[in-house]
Structure formats: structure tokens, C-alpha cells
């Protein structure tokens, strides 16, 4: 066979595919070099060289990974698919031998020599090929009934050896390396040799398979057809090495090695005995296998040793979280008690507070400090009791509950298990989820926790449970009684500043693939982001804003040439993106929030109240106006039922006060006037009793015409007799007041102990006025 020199062609390495001259087929292209080759081919004469990889698993093949014979093909059609994939249709033209490969312009080029077609065999050789192929194809069709009858009939009808061998090489099911042999063949006689060898091997394989099937059928009862596959495997193993270990024997060996109580081993042995009596592939046998494997994977007596170094735990907690003094102290106290008593039992800690305040991350840090495995179980939206206790294994699709799954994934029986969003669980007709959690969290009961699927007591006493919640009012009282509540309050602006500077900025720079030297934030701009672009109790929104800035910084560094198009850093280019007050709007846009500020002067019927929200504290103005009417009282501002009741109490109390002559109001004033009480930001729902004293002061001011001081704010629940009752969320409310520049705050006297527990950072510069009743508030808040 002679060769003639051709020219360079763009080349594409193919996986598991060999293209022959005259063949039309399509394949997908996704590698960058191959895409470049397709584009170069279409820009020239639409010709391309297709060569098969020796190993289809190699993602970036080199010259040594490719065969030396391929096919020059013409590209007929290109379709762009999702994910930057090209579907290319080609027609094979000529077989070609590679002289050399080279890489240029981001693609592979092949210098090839076109190989001339085979010489036509003489009549005797052609006849021998046809007779031999007919005999072998007939035998193969007999032992393999699945072989297409139409294809066999067509091939047996051919009298042209060239056509028969060409179609056989292209269409017969074979591995790509076998098909490559046909492409590299030097003549039709060699192709016949390859085909005959392939067919003989296939015929022998099907014959042996049939013999093994006969051996199996002699052993198995005719009514147990589903057992044939398993017995075939046993017969094959006997032919190979004289014996095999059954599945049940493997389970029995695993049970003997299992570190568990004796009752667990006894139970598993009974289940294995039952498995032996079941047919191999029926549904009940599969249930038994899944159950046995699940029990074998549980860490019955496997545990890790806790890190007892209290100083190390303190360092870990301090390095991961800023502030949170009470929480850290409680964790360290628990560790100290564990070291002394050696007992793993401890009250379940529930971290309660607004979103984004670090409840979940503090649990992860505790696991890190104690050297425990960490498992997070999200309970948000769980309303089926079986999610906790598991399903009976007799049900279709039965599985263990989340607690057992958590133990299995941890691999030890003493992990730290975080029950996240425990206040978001609910109940329906399938059972009470919170009641199912009682056994999990009660230290007196969880020693013998029974999951419906496992059906054996599992000791949970060594598990350190930590729960998180946003709103404790949504948790049932019995469940709440099992937990020790630690309040995770809102962060002060100073705490947010330190968290951002020491943790969030470094974290986002690392996650976005930059170095600390690439992006610089000034202290002033960090405070601007906190005050002008976020309004929240935690720092989740703050982290999102920082991430947004860092992503834009990555784009700037790309444009400056610090990174090349493939993401590689060019160390010769130096640039730092500086974020300051002057350019912050380029990254985050216009200011989103402007803090509420106190009024410049006192006004009639307007009083500043304090509110707690899930996003932290806030101030709200309560406005009251009077007008001629017949005693009507109108409420607006999206108030809940409790707040409407507080407004009604406030009006009733003011009527009782003025009618007794303490303030100069005509006796018939309320019968001749209408009242309208409004709380701005009407789209925001508001509820709670703590605005009672604020409403009463606003009503009294509107009725008497006496202005209310602009530099005061107040909070407290009001009774019909004028008592000011204590309220919650005081930390958040004082922070909101301080942000608004209001330093004089009226607080119920019974909240004095709550104020004393606050950090001086919050109370510094504040004039907190403790009051018992509304008269004390009126005396100091109204301008006389």
C-alpha cells in the first residue's frame, strides 16, 4: 500500500469512537482544544483529522495517548448545545497515517499522509472471506438470539467481500480498540482475520455462558426463577476458585467484629437467619439486607476522645467569634464540669436570637474546640414524627429517623449534633414532631432512645445536643423545659465592625480567590456599610454586602491584568483595590438606609416608641390627632390584635385620668371629638403590648395640646390602672434609641435588672429613667 503526502489538518482526539471512510456520524465536542480545531476547520476547508484515544479516561491526551492511524473527515453540520458543547456531524473521507502532531493556536494539528484504499482481492480470496464470514455469522446468530435478524440476513446475502467487511467493521458491536484494528488493517484478508477471531471469541463466550446456565438450572427449583442470577454467580465462582463466601456469611462475620452491646448482635443474628430463608431478589429480602447493613454501620460503642484543654477551647471560640461572652462562658463551664465528673450528660443548650447572629457557626466552633464530629440536622419545616423516630421497616421506602442518620454519618456515638431551627418544626395528622423530640433531648430518657426502624435501644446520652431558634414562643413548653436557653442578642455597631474587620472581610477575600493585599477596606467605610447598607440584628446581610464588593474587586483586578483569562495570577502585575467612603457607591449603589433621628423640637401628639423586630431594634413614631366627631377612635399602621388592645387601654386610661381633673380637659371632650392613632410605615406589620405607655402619652398630648419632648423615647406595657409593666427585647430597643440619637429613655422599673446585665458599651451615655406608672412618665415627658 503506497502513501502520498498531504497537508496539516486540525485534529480532534475521540473517546470510544473510531470513524471510517464513508461513514457519516455525529459526536459532541467540549474540550477547548477540540472546539478550537472545529472552528479552525470551518474557517478553512471544513476538513478535520479524527483520531481515537488509546485510553478514554485521559482528559487532556498527549501524542503518546493517540493511535497513529485516523480518518480525514468533512464537517457536515454543527449544532451548539447547552454548556458550551458542540454537536458535530462528519463524513469520513480518507484513512490517514500521522507523521507528527503539534500544538499551535490553542489546538492540536496533525501532519498526515493519506493511505490509499485496499486493492480489490482476487476471486478466490474474496470467495473464502464470504464463505468463512457466513459460517461464523450463522453460528453467532444461533448462540446470541438478541443479534439483529435483519442485519444477519443482509450480511449473509452479500457476495462482495469488500462491502461485507466494511459494514462489519463499522456496525458490529465491539470495543473501540477492536474497531481501531480494522481501521489499521492493511488489506481485506487482515480484516477477515480480525473479524474471525472476534466472532470465535464471542461464540465461545456465549457457549460457556449457556453451559453455566445449565449447571444452575439443575440446582434450582423451577419455581425459584428469581434465584437463577445468584446461583449463576455461585457457579462461576466455583469454576474459578472452587468456592465462594455467601452474603449471609459476610454479614455474620461483620456481626462478630461489631463493637456493640450483646442484644444488638443477637438481634442481627436472628435477622441474618431470616434472610437465609428468603429468596434472593424478592422485596422482603431487600428490606432485610438494608436493615442489617444500617445496623452494622451504626457506631454503637465507637467514640472519639474529647479535647479537655479548656485554654485551647477558649482560644478557638475567641478566634472564631467576636463577643458572645455569655455563650463562651457557658461552653467553657460545661467543659470544665465534664473534665471533673467524666460524665457526658449535660443540659441541652438552645441558642435563641435573631437570624444572622452566629448561632449555627458557634455550634461548629464548639465541635472544633472539643474535637468532636459535627452533625447538623435542619428541622425547619419538619412535621412528620417519622422524620425523628424513623419509619417501621415493614413500610415501603422505610428509613431511620434523622437522629439515627446523623449518628451514622458521624461514625461515632458522641458527636456534637446541632438541631437547627428547632422553632420551625410543626405537627400534622402524622404525629407531633415536638413530642418526638422530647425523648431525644431528655437526658433521663435518651439513654434508651428507640427508633422505629432500628427497633433497638440506642444510647444518645453521649451526644452533645445544641439547638438554635429565632422565636422561643413557637416552641412547646415541654420541649422548652428540656433545654437551657441562652439568648444570642443583636450585635452593636461596634461588634459588627470588629466581626467584619476580623472575620468577614478575610473570609470573603479567601472564598473569592484573592489575597488580603488585593483588597483594602478603611475603618470608616466598614462603619458606613454597617449603618447605611444593612439593617439587621446579625451580620448575614453585612457579609453579603462585603461579598458583593469583593466580587466587583475581582473584576477590577481582571481588567488591570492581575489575572489572565484562565484565572492564573500574573505575579508581575501589582494592584490593590482600595474601598473607601469616596467610592463605596460605585460598589454598592446609593445608600439604602438612613438611621432614624430624633425630632428637632417637641410636637403635640407625637411620641417616639421603641420596638423589637427579628431584624433587631427599631424606633417608631406614634401619631395621634383629634378632630370634631362623636367619640370615634380609628387605628391605622398595620397593627396586630395585641397592639390594638393596647391602644384601646391607652384611650380608656387617659379618659379616666382627665375626667378626674388631673389635666384640664372638658368633661364632654371625648364625646365631641374623634381620634386617629397612626404608626408610620404602614406596610410593616406591628404587634405587641410594649407600646402601651407610648400610645397613652401620645393620646394625652393630643387631648391636652401639651407637646412631648423630642429627646425622649419610651417602652412599657400599660394597664387600665396606669401601671407600667416590664417588657422584653430591651437590648435591641436601647440600641435603636442610641442610633437615633435619643439618650433619654423611659423603661419599666422591673426591667432594671435587665439593664444592669447589658454591656457598658450599650448603656454608656444613656439616661435611663425607671418608672412605675404612667403619671411618672407624663410628668417628665410632657413639656410644661
Keywords:
five-stranded mixed barrel, Archaeosine Trna-guanine Transglycosylase, Chain: A, domain 4, 784 residues, 28 helices, seven-stranded mixed β-sheet, single chain, 6 domains, alpha/beta, hydrolase, disordered N terminus
Overview of the molecule:
There is one protein chain. With 784 residues, this protein is of the alpha/beta class. The protein has 28 helices and 26 strands. Strand 23 (717-718) and strand 24 (724-725) form a beta hairpin. Helix 22 crosses helix 24 (692-704).
SSE layout:
Elements: E1 3-14, E2 24-29, H1 32-43, E3 47-52, E4 69-81, E5 85-104, E6 107-115, H2 123-143, H3 149-156, H4 161-171, H5 176-184, H6 188-219, H7 228-241, H8 247-257, H9 262-276, H10 283-297, H11 310-320, H12 325-341, E7 348-352, H13 359-370, E8 374-378, H14 386-389, H15 402-410, E9 416-420, E10 427-428, E11 431-432, H16 433-441, E12 449-450, E13 457-458, E14 464-469, H17 477-481, E15 483-487, H18 493-511, E16 519-521, H19 523-532, H20 540-559, E17 577-579, H21 584-588, E18 606-613, E19 616-628, E20 633-636, H22 641-659, H23 669-672, E21 673-678, H24 692-704, E22 712-714, E23 717-718, E24 724-725, H25 730-739, E25 744-748, H26 752-756, H27 760-763, E26 767-771, H28 774-781
Parallel strand pairs: 1-3, 7-14, 7-15, 8-9, 9-14, 16-17, 18-22, 20-21, 22-25, 25-26
Antiparallel strand pairs: 1-6, 2-5, 3-4, 4-5, 5-6, 10-11, 12-13, 18-19, 19-21, 23-24
Organism: Lachnospira eligens (strain ATCC 27750 / DSM 3376 / VPI C15-48 / C15-B4)
Binding site for ATP: 353-360
Family: Belongs to the peptidase S16 family.
Amino acid at each position: 500500500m503506497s502513501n502520498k503526502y498531504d497537508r496539516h489538518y486540525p485534529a480532534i482526539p475521540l473517546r470510544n469512537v473510531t470513524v471510517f471512510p464513508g461513514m457519516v456520524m455525529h459526536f459532541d465536542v467540549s474540550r477547548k482544544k477540540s472546539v478550537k480545531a472545529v472552528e479552525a476547520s470551518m474557517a478553512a476547508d471544513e476538513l478535520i483529522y479524527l483520531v481515537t484515544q488509546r485510553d478514554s479516561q485521559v482528559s487532556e491526551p498527549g501524542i503518546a495517548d493517540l493511535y497513529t492511524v485516523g480518518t480525514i473527515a468533512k464537517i457536515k453540520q454543527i449544532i451548539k448545545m447547552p454548556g458550551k458543547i458542540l454537536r458535530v456531524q462528519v463524513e469520513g473521507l480518507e484513512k490517514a497515517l500521522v507523521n507528527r502532531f503539534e500544538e499551535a493556536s490553542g489546538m492540536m494539528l496533525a501532519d498526515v499522509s493519506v493511505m490509499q484504499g485496499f486493492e480489490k482481492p482476487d476471486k478466490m480470496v474474496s470467495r473464502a472471506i464470504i464463505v468463512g464470514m457466513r459460517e461464523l455469522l450463522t453460528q453467532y446468530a444461533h448462540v446470541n438470539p438478541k443479534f439483529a435478524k435483519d442485519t444477519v440476513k443482509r450480511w449473509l446475502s452479500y457476495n462482495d467481500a469488500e462491502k461485507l467487511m466494511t459494514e462489519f467493521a463499522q456496525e458490529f458491536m465491539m470495543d473501540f480498540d477492536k474497531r481501531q484494528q480494522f481501521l489499521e488493517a492493511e488489506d481485506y484478508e487482515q480484516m477477515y482475520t480480525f473479524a474471525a477471531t472476534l466472532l470465535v471469541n464471542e461464540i465461545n463466550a456465549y457457549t460457556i455462558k449457556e453451559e453455566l446456565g445449565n449447571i444452575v438450572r439443575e440446582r434450582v427449583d423451577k419455581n425459584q426463577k428469581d434465584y437463577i442470577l445468584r446461583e449463576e454467580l455461585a457457579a462461576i465462582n466455583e469454576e474459578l476458585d472452587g468456592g465462594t463466601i455467601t452474603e449471609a456469611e459476610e454479614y455474620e462475620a461483620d456481626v462478630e467484629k461489631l463493637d456493640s452491646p450483646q442484644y444488638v448482635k443477637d438481634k442481627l443474628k436472628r435477622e441474618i437467619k431470616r434472610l437465609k430463608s428468603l429468596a434472593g431478589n424478592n422485596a422482603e429480602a431487600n428490606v432485610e439486607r438494608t436493615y442489617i447493613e444500617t445496623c452494622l454501620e451504626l457506631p454503637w460503642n465507637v467514640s472519639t476522645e474529647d479535647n479537655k484543654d479548656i485554654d485551647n477551647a477558649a482560644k478557638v471560640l475567641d478566634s472564631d467569634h467576636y463577643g458572645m461572652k455569655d455563650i463562651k462562658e457557658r461552653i467553657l463551664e460545661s467543659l470544665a464540669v465534664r473534665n471533673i465528673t467524666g460524665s457526658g450528660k449535660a443540659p441541652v443548650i438552645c441558642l435563641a436570637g435573631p437570624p444572622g447572629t452566629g448561632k449555627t457557626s458557634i455550634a461548629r466552633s464548639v465541635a472544633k474546640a472539643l474535637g468532636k464530629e459535627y452533625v447538623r440536622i435542619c428541622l425547619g419545616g419538619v412535621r412528620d414524627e417519622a422524620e425523628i423516630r424513623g419509619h417501621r421497616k415493614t413500610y415501603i421506602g422505610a428509613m431511620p429517623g434523622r437522629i439515627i442518620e446523623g449518628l451514622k454519618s458521624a461514625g461515632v456515638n458522641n458527636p456534637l449534633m446541632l438541631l437547627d431551627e428547632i422553632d420551625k418544626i410543626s405537627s400534622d395528622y402524622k404525629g407531633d414532631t415536638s413530642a418526638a423530640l422530647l425523648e431525644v433531648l431528655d437526658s433521663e430518657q435518651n439513654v434508651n432512645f428507640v427508633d422505629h426502624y432500628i427497633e433497638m435501644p440506642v444510647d444518645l446520652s453521649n451526644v452533645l445536643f445544641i439547638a438554635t431558634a429565632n422565636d422561643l414562643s413557637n416552641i412547646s413548653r415541654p420541649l422548652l423545659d428540656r433545654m437551657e436557653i441562652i439568648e444570642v442578642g443583636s450585635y452593636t455597631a461596634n461588634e459588627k465592625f470588629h466581626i467584619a474587620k476580623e472575620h468577614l472581610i478575610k473570609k470573603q477575600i479567601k472564598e473569592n480567590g484573592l489575597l488580603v493585599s488585593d483588597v483594602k477596606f478603611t475603618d470608616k467605610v466598614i462603619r458606613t456599610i454597617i449603618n447605611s447598607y444593612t439593617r439587621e440584628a446579625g451580620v448575614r446581610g453585612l457579609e453579603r454586602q462585603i461579598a458583593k464588593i469583593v466580587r466587583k474587586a475581582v473584576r477590577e483586578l481582571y481588567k488591570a491584568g492581575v489575572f489572565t483569562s484562565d484565572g492564573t495570577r500574573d505575579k508581575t502585575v501589582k494592584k490593590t483595590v482600595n474601598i473607601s467612603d469616596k467610592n463605596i457607591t460605585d460598589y454598592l449603589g446609593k445608600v439604602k438606609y438612613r438611621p432614624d433621628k430624633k425630632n428637632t423640637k417637641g410636637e403635640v401628639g407625637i411620641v417616639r416608641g421603641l420596638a423589637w423586630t427579628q431584624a433587631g431594634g427599631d424606633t417608631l413614631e406614634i401619631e395621634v390627632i383629634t378632630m370634631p366627631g362623636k367619640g370615634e377612635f380609628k387605628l391605622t399602621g398595620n397593627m396586630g390584635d395585641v397592639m390594638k388592645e393596647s391602644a384601646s387601654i391607652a384611650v380608656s386610661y387617659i379618659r379616666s385620668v382627665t375626667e378626674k381633673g388631673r389635666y384640664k380637659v372638658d368633661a364632654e371632650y371625648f364625646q365631641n371629638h374623634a381620634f386617629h392613632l397612626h404608626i408610620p410605615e404602614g406596610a410593616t406589620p406591628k404587634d405587641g403590648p410594649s407600646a402601651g405607655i407610648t400610645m397613652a402619652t401620645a393620646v394625652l398630648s393630643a387631648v391636652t395640646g401639651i407637646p412631648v419632648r423630642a429627646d425622649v423615647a419610651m417602652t412599657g406595657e400599660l394597664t387600665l390602672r396606669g401601671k407600667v409593666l416590664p417588657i422584653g427585647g430591651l437590648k435591641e430597643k436601647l440600641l435603636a434609641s442610641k442610633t437615633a440619637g435619643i439618650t433619654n429613655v423611659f423603661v419599666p422599673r422591673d426591667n432594671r435588672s435587665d439593664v444592669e446585665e447589658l454591656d457598658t458599651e450599650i448603656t454608656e451615655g444613656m439616661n435611663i429613667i425607671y418608672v412605675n406608672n404612667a403619671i411618672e412618665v407624663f410628668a417628665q415627658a410632657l413639656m410644661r
